[in-house]
Amino acid sequence: MLKMQNVYKTYKNGDEFLHALHDVSLEFQPGDFAFLLGESGSGKSTLLNVLSGLDVPSKGSVLIEGKDTDSFSKKDFATFRNNHVGFVFQEYNLIEHLSVMDNVMLPLLFQGVDKKEAQKRATTELDKIGLKKHIAKKPMQLSGGQQQRVAIARALVTNPKIILADEPTGSLDEKMGEKTLAYLKEHAQDKIVIVVTHNEELADKFANRTIHIQDGKILNDTNQRESKPEKQKSLDLKSPKVPLGMLFKFAKNNVFSRIFRSLFTSAIVAIGFVAILLLTFIIMGIRGSLSDAIGSLIPPDEYLLHPIEDTYIDNDTFERVKDNDSVEALRYNIHMRIDTRYRSLEENTYDLNYLALPYDAFAFERDGTLHGRLPENDDEVVISLRTALTLRGMQMVDEESYEYIFNLVDGYTLNADYLDSEFDESKTFTIVGMSEERQQRNVYLTYDALLNIAEERLGNEEFRTSAVAYLTTGDDGEIDSLTRQLRDEEGLVLRNVFGEITAQIDDIMFTALQWFVGIALISLAVAGILIGLVIYTSVLERVREIGILTALGARASNIRGIFLIESGISGLLSGVFASVAAVFIALGLNRLFNNFIETPLNLLLGGELNITLLSPSIAPLAIVLVAGVLYAMLSGWIPSRHATKLNAVSALRKE
């Protein structure tokens, strides 16, 4: 049962109050095929809007199944309309960008009905009205009569208890109008049907009840049924979960129906993201190149070991730490390094690093392939590629020539005086291996051989030397534990020079990135305003559609979701544009840099610079894609919220 008790509806027009409904009391029961007659402006449409919850009375009560709707929220009314009310409008009010099938399915999807089930029920309803073969067409491809039948199918597909038809024949000729009402009466015999019209002839022909209204007042009602007290029944007002795919379809259709505007907006937003990406790529490229350059000079896993207040470690401490079982248990190799000088065959003097061989060959595996073998006695050495080139008076060579260079020095006997004039001239070493280290002039000896050289050079006095540890563990917890142990037990500091330098570089780069991103964010702020304006424009363009959706039972969250998804699609497009543009720009700038700066410098200096100006990476690209979507949705929040505040009655009148 549907009942109105002493309902008033008043609108304020300036300083005057207009009474659209004045003390209206009506009761409707299943089986009523009631015609509401009256001139334009008499209050007919207002009465329907109040009954459906699209509008609320200024005074009085509307009862549904005995339950007063005064306590209903907008969400309750939306659920009520979706489950219990079917609307038929004079202007059909079909969603133009949806197919006939999708229009009829729409109320079912708002109920949370499975898509396949919704298609089945919609097809059945369209088959009843003879439009099954037109299900894939858009409304504009149908005649007026066909569109009105689609509107009726949409109203009936949920099997509602109440059918509200507002001037359903107003846009049809007389013959088609009569067919429409005959079909409606045939398929709604057990329902409450209220038809608003000013055509009394149609009322005489089809109605089993007529109600005349004038100036908001009921003049007469032919209802012959007695009013029966009715117990309050339970209404299912539980809000179903609307499929996200349906909301996405609405948003997608709107975006692609205005594709040029959408692409233009996304391109404008992308400019800010392109700037951020390029700045990030530059920072990452320069940082990576610097890290590689530093890593070629200072191995990332090399740690210096020295007293807290000194640079060098004495021999006794070195021996004690080296032989400490607890230190060895942490799996690291430690050896001494003596910095000295030596003469090449051309009598030139160069810096030279004497390094005691680690307990294993992992250092060579880290730096590159070892050509030859490791020393087997104290008279054999391994030298670096840079040392070999210097001994032979040669410049840097291609990787294909490494084996050739090693063949030139393999088995080469070095007199000690070529290594250092302070050594015994009779002392000789045989080269048995060469590492591919290109940056440092190193000579690797056994630990005992290096110890003997140090004692010979410095006599029997206590000598001090640098100590280098190559940690074979990358576990930060183990390294921290080792650092604390050496500090507390030996008073030694374990320093990772590579880490210290790269940390300083990271700080500088991060600070620069913050400044640059801050500037780029100004562009994004402007772009965000643009997105908000575009979505607001979209809301204004689709006011009538919003009214239709509200009448069909869409809740505020559904409507807001459509426009937020539309914002997100624009943001996703901007993220894609920005990512593609930034990668292509980065690749282009890298090529220009390599061709016009890096290559000429290498030719001029005879070196092998390897600088990456911009380094595209998946991580920032992924972040921009996600950020683009979230930022656009945030920008579209206010206009999306505005869409939910629109008055449905006014929206349905929007042309």
Q: Report the CATH architecture of the largest domain.
A: 3-Layer(aba) Sandwich
Unreliable residue runs: 339-346, 458-463
Helix content: 40-55%
C-alpha end-to-end distance:
34 Å
The number of distinct β-strands equals 21
Q: State the secondary-structure class.
A: alpha/beta
The domain tally reads: 3
Strand-residue fraction? 15-25%
Taken from the alpha-carbon principal axes, the silhouette is elongated
The major beta sheet can be summarized as: 11 strands, mixed
Average pLDDT score: 82
Tally the helices: 23
Kindly provide the name of the CATH class of the largest domain: Alpha Beta
Name the CATH superfamily assignment of the largest domain.
Answer: P-loop containing nucleotide triphosphate hydrolases
**Could you name the CATH topology of the largest domain?**
Rossmann fold
Radius of gyration (Å): 43 Å
Fold and architecture overview:
The chain is α/β, with parallel strands linked by helices. The protein folds into 3 domains: 2-241, Rossmann fold; 255-295 and 504-652, no CATH class; 301-495, no CATH class. The chain is built from 23 helices and 21 strands. Strands 11, 12, 13, 14, 15, 16, 17, 18, 19, 20 and 21 form an 11-stranded mixed β-sheet that branches. A hairpin with a 2-residue loop joins β1 and β2. The protein is elongated. Mean pLDDT is 82; it is low at 339-346 and 458-463.
